[in-house]
Amino acid sequence: MKREIAPNQMKIDAPPARTSLATGQMALSNIDYDERATMRAWESFLADEPKCAGDPVPSHVRSLIHDSWYRSATGGINAQGIEAPLSSDRDAIEYLTRANAELLSAARRSFASLGQLLDGTGAMLVLADSDGVLIDAIGDKKTLHDGMDIHLAIGGKWNEDAVGTNGIGTALWTGEPTFVHAAEHFCAGIKSWTCAGAPIRDPLDGKIIGVVDLSGYSPIFRPHNTALVAATARQIEKALAEQQQEQRTRLLEAFISSAPGYRRKDGLVIVDHRGRAIFCNNVPDGEATEMMDGPMEPGRGRWLMNLPSSGSEADLARALPAHLRSCHITPLKLDGDLRGAALVFPSVPAVSSAAVVHREVNKHLQDAVAMIVGESEALHAAIDVACRVARSSSVTSLLVEGETGVGKELFARLVHAGSRRTANDPFIAMNCGAITRDLFGSELFGHVAGAFTGASREGKLGVFELAHGGVLSLDEIGELPLEIQPFLLRVLEERVVNRIGDSRGRPVDVRLVASTNRDLKHEIDAGRFRRDLYYRIGAVSITVPPLRARGEDVLLLVEHFNRQIATAAGEEPLEFSQEALDALLAYHWPGNVRELKNLIGRLHVLARGRDIGLHDLPGEIAAPSATSDDGKTLSAELPGGTLVEAERQAMKNALAAEGGNLSRVARRLGISRPTLYRKLDQYGIRRGFL
Fold first, then answer.
1. Alpha-carbon distance 148 to 567, whole Å?
2. Labelling 329: which of 225, 364, 410, 537 has CA 20 to 30 A away?
3. Does an H or E element contain 323, and which?
4. pLDDT tens across 654-673, in order?
């Protein structure tokens, strides 16, 4: 016997779990819609404050609607809301129109034909962008007018985050044609409406770029409303594909006319105005791997870059991601506007994968070396050792010694750059001087959940595990507590780490770069550092020279930091007088490179003009003392005694006579500047003497 349908019930069709827009088929299953039962379910849903999306679904509510209610409730949507947010700002609407010009153009034909048919039907057809903001609306005039009451108009925002369950927002969320009828809406103020929405996908990359929706008061509901908007969405997608094909052809023609030197063996990628690849041919292996999107045409539809608005070749080159820097880029304009670019990869002889890896490693190493500014012999000697360690797979630990501020971490990064095997090899840095004594074990080796009071509930990875496959930089290793040192030694020897509270060992492949500003041999004699750990980490060591021993590197660093800071601030570099440069050269720099960088930064902020003279420098630099180490005034006469004593005093006298200008001191003594620096260190003459 056929069941009767109550007056407050209506038979409606639900869309399938997955709809195929490619074939146009829509398999519909029948369900009963009961207005009162759905309202009671909604009221009960709000009263019970659901705890999770998996709560039982009332029999009269579709799971799609129940899930959307849950998202709406937990997203903070006001269930008593009566309208969607609306932007009425004219500039915002104009920007919205320009940003969606292609979508509006593709929908124009479909909307024009359907608009005439909807007049008098009580239905309206709307077009929304990927954020659910309405950008066009046509249909029955009265319905369009009534739609203003709930902001179902251009500028209204109808995604689920703004107004909860509705045909536009829920179609965006599910990515499929969807209808929401009457009481199924989440907000009370729109429960008298019915709507059916279908997402519009970009034919090039498949991303959802908009929604077409049929809306009106609930009596307009028909089972085929969802099929109608799905068919309309397909028509718009077809029009988009035609537009894109036309643009693709025009961009290829623009490239052919602008690149007569292009050879068939060269690789070629054409990107559209959004930076997506629309044509690929002969793409080199390295770039094809990055852009691969399908077997027929590698990279087609893949986003590659942001095209700058200027369209100059220099700006385009700067916008290229790192893996595409080997190409030549040409802007492509249509009707005077930048509408794409051509990326040409000159053909090169085939190289083995091992050679490619070696080339990449060398490039990273060269970039890391370039970060260390200086030309002094002592600095180059330290860089040479670091490069040798980086290239060697047999050296697993390195000790970098040097005063505070000399740039020890740059050498750790150099080792990392030269030993990288993949682009994702980690570099983990930890300053032992910044860790409390109680946390050293946890930070180094990690811990399991509940291992000790205050331990993380989820447990924690230590820096050794985080650095697996890469480089671990332990700065100020001399601060490492004596009781932790045996555990560090065991990890370095066995290459296995045990988290605190866990007996299971975890293998680690880590290259250690330890650095310190202490004399570790003195620390060993004082009983504060283990001798066996020192010999384990110091099998190869580097001494980074202090800035006072690097001669005219001071001037190179002044120029480097001056330009770096000026560029970051968008200003012109400072101009230093010769007297100021001489004073900077003569200063002893107890804070080394860090002190110099901070000084240049301070001058950029505090100097009254762009010209820097002696008076702009701090007093300890501009007017150094001309006293000896014991505070006595220097004598101009050479004392008696040994030759060493005479030479030492002669250097002090020359320094005093030349006011600390090392170039003039070297000339006065008839020796080279490197010899002068070596003698200063040999005799222990501090720059504070100046």
1. 51
2. 364
3. none
4. 777 777 777 777 777 767 66
- 58-94 in b/e form (b: 16+ CB < 10 A) is bebbbebbbbbbbbbbeeebebebeebebbeeeeeee
Domain that holds residue 59: 35-243
Which residue type does 111 have?
Answer: F
Q: Which amino acid is at 648?
A: R
In a domain, 13, yes or no: no
Q: Give me 586's structure tokens.
A: 């003569």
pLDDT digits (tens, 9 = 90+) for 163-179: 999 999 999 999 999 99
Question: Where a domain ends, among 243, 275, 309?
Answer: 243
User: Is residue 249 exposed (0-12), middle (13-18) or buried (19+ Cβ within 10 Å)?
Assistant: exposed
Q: What is the C-alpha separation between 369 and 380, in angstroms, rounded?
A: 10
Write out the two tokens for 261.
């030197």
What does 464-482 look like in DSSP terms, one character per residue?
Answer: HHHTTTSEEEEETGGGS-T
Q: What is the mean pLDDT of the chain?
A: 80
Q: Are residues 444 and 324 in the same domain?
A: no
Q: How many domains does the chain have?
A: 5
Asked if residue 428 and residue 286 are part of one domain, the reply reads no
Q: Which of 297, 328, 345 is the last residue of a domain?
A: 345
d(CA 628, CA 625): 9
The 10s digit of each residue's pLDDT in 595-626 is 999 999 999 988 888 899 988 998 888 876 54
Is residue 279 within 8 Å of residue 298, measured between CB atoms? no
Predicted TM-score of the model (pTM): 0.47
Least confident stretch, 295-299, 327-331, 415-419, 493-497? 295-299
